[in-house]
């Protein structure tokens, strides 16, 4: 794509003048990787279409368009990952692996290495599932991992453990 740069895009007063972006990654409804996504967007492709999923009719959602990932995250996860992680954690694990690889899997001091993943809520689907399980069968039906699947920093924790980061 492009070479790493410390340029701040013309923004005055950029607080991180020495930050270098060494890799980027994405999986989208246009393409499973960032290069193909960018080419597709430049070619005018859209990953948005009419949704025919069961949940759209089940809840009579007013919005019936959206996009599905071309390469679903769960296709890359094992049985244990599916049980122990929320969707946002599984996505963070997969994409951070791609990102780390495209950055050249650099050797870093784990005590100076931290991970930050921006997410508004964390595993929101697990909140609903845990609530339903609690109502149906009591506390024993709720996964003991529910809190870590719901917490907003759960995605960063998964990535940090995967990459050996200890500074955060």
Head-to-tail CA distance between termini = 30 Å
Q: Count of DSSP E strands?
A: 2
Q: What's the Cα radius of gyration?
A: 19 Å
Question: For this structure, what is the CATH homologous superfamily of the domain at 72-168?
Answer: Thiolase/Chalcone synthase
Beta-strand content bin: under 5%
Mean pLDDT: 90
Main β sheet profile: 2 strands, antiparallel
Indicate the structural class. Answer: mainly alpha
Mind telling me which CATH architecture of the domain at 72-168 this is? 3-Layer(aba) Sandwich
CATH class of the domain at 72-168: Alpha Beta
Order of helices and strands: HEHEHHHHH
| Form type | globular
Share of helix, binned: 25-40%
Q: Poorly predicted ranges (pLDDT <50, ≥5 residues)?
A: none
Strand order of the largest sheet: 1-2
Give the helix tally. Answer: 7
Which fold name corresponds to the CATH topology of the domain at 72-168? Peroxisomal Thiolase, Chain A, domain 1
């Amino acid at each position: 794509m492009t070479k790493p740069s410390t340029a701040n895009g013309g923004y005055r007063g950029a607080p991180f003048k020495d930050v270098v972006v060494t890799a980027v990654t994405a999986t989208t409804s246009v393409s499973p990787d960032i290069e193909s996504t960018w080419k597709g967007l430049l070619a005018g492709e859209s990953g948005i279409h009419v949704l025919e999923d069961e949940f759209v009719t089940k809840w009579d959602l007013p919005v019936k368009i959206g996009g599905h990932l071309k390469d679903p995250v769960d296709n890359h996860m094992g049985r244990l990952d599916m049980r122990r992680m929320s969707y946002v954690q599984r996505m963070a694990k997969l994409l951070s692996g791609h990102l780390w690889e495209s950055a050249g899997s650099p050797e870093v001091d784990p005590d100076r290495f931290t991970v930050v993943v921006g997410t508004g809520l964390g595993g929101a689907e697990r909140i609903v599932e845990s609530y339903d399980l609690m109502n149906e069968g009591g506390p024993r039906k709720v996964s003991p991992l529910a809190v870590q699947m719901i917490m907003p920093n759960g995605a960063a924790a998964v990535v940090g453990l995967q990459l050996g980061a200890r500074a955060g």
